Amino acid sequence: MSNIKCIVVDDEHHIRVFLKSVLKLADIEVAGEASNGEEGVRLFKQLEPDLVLMDINMPLKTGEEALMEIKAFNPESMVIMLTSVADSETVKKCIAAGADSYLRKDTPLPELKKIFREIREEYLEER
Amino acid sequence: MSKYSFSDSSDFFEITAKLEDEKINSNLLKKLVKDYAYQERKLKETLSQKNYILGVAAHDIRNPLVSIRGFADLLKDGDTGELNEIQQEFISLISSTSDELLELLNNLLDFTAVSGGKVGLTKEKTDFVSLVEKKVELMSYTAAKKDMSIKLENKPGNRLHFFDRGKIAQVVENLLSNAVKYSFIGSEIKVFIFFENSSLSLEVEDNGPGIPKGEEKELFGEFKKLNVASTGGEKSTGLGLAISKRIIEAHEGKIFGRNKQDEKGAVFGFQIPSEVE
């Protein structure tokens, strides 16, 4: 059965581990992870995943900069920005720059599982 | 013509004294302006430090707390294997305590953001019914833990309204969260939406003990905790309704809380002028 392949880009190790655990529960394959925007873009070009979960505030290259490079490389890729409440202005800028959606990091577990499952189902239906 | 004219020596002394007074006043004014500029600079520095501390709180405390709660919930749900009874109890405590801390932190950050001066609004076209539906769905997970349900009683069309989506969502979430906190176990919470010619409003009807007599005026005060206990032992920061009030007033609307007429429970809601697209 075909699957959806994802990478997680966030500078905080615990956030990456948590998201990877929930993605796996939703049957989304985690192909790799990166701790900054620069590494994230490099990993994207190397693995060409279907989905990217991208933090906004990161060292070396911000999420917004990485998003623009990824979209320039492959406009069809699905990029979801990870945010805390305080980032709402930046989120709007990222959506304007081509992000497909955004996800609050404090989304409770049951809803997070549901969102990832829906993303997977919608993606597989479209293919 | 000269500003000052005098005919005898007494006039001369009087005017000299006046000039001296004006000189003193002018020097005093210069000093005050200088002091004011210094105080303004210090205030800006303090505000900048405050924002830095809030930034640290937002990023460096909230995110680890989010992960702690997340990992606890993964363990609690049995996603990583079965737990024994004691492990289940401990992990449930870690989860609920992290939840309370997150709520407190978010409330403090929100309160700081909306207190002291005008609340900044970023209005955009929003489907209010869909916004409420999403919040009801999200809060239903918490309600289910107390064997409660939340029902959106009516959906009056999908018109687009113009308001600050994030901030109004925060108010809706707060009203629903309070209803879940204070309603009796196993009860149903009802949500109503009304669109009128020039306003939109929301009412959340809970099934709790209601607002204690004489405390109606305290409802929206800062750090005010009513003399009523939550039905599941949840804690209250006493900030949620104060934050909501500021947000609704920034939209030039009204927020209210009252007891139900014929049965136990309270109705909380708001009304804001509606700019329909």
Descriptive overview:
- The complex is a heterodimer of chains A (about 130) and B (about 280).
- The two termini of chain A are about 10 Å apart.
- Chain A has one domain: 3-Layer(aba) Sandwich (Rossmann fold).
- In chain A, strands 2-1-3-4-5 form a five-stranded parallel beta sheet, with helices on both faces.
- Helices cover about 50% and strands about 20% of the residues of chain A.
- In chain A, helix 2 runs parallel beside helix 3.
- In chain A, strand 4 (about 80-85), helix 4 (about 90-95) and strand 5 (about 100-105) form a beta-alpha-beta unit.
- By secondary structure, chain A is an alpha/beta fold.
- Chain B has about 280 residues and is an alpha+beta fold.
- Chain B has two domains: about 10-115; about 125-275, 2-Layer Sandwich (Heat Shock Protein 90).
- Chain B has helices at about 10-75, 85-115, 130-145, 165-180, 240-250; strands spanning about 125, 150, 160-165, 190-195, 200-205, 255-260, 265-275.
- In chain B, strands 2-4-5-7-6 form a five-stranded mixed beta sheet.
- The termini of chain B are far apart.
- The mean pLDDT of chain B is about 85.
- Chains A and B meet through helix 1 and helix 5 of A and helix 1, helix 2 and helix 3 of B.
Entry summary:
The complex is a heterodimer of chains A (127) and B (277). Chain A has 127 residues and is α/β, with parallel strands linked by helices. Helix content of chain A is 49%, strand content 20%.
Descriptive terms for the model:
heterodimer; A: 127 residues; alpha/beta; Rossmann fold; 5-stranded parallel sheet; 20% strand; B: 277 residues; alpha+beta; Heat Shock Protein 90; 2 domains; 5-stranded mixed sheet; 5 helices; 7 strands; 15% strand; elongated
Please state the second-level CATH architecture of chain A. Answer: 3-Layer(aba) Sandwich
| Overall tally of structural domains of chain A | 1
The residue ranges of chain B in which pLDDT falls below 50 over 5 or more consecutive positions are: none
CATH class of chain A: Alpha Beta
**Tally of helical segments of chain B:** 5
Instruction: Estimate nothing, just give the exact number of structural domains of chain B.
Output: 2
Main β-sheet, spatial strand arrangement of chain B: 2-4-5-7-6
**Lateral strand order in the biggest sheet of chain A:** 2-1-3-4-5
Main structural class of chain A: alpha/beta
Largest sheet of chain B: 5 strands, mixed
CATH superfamily of chain A: Response regulator
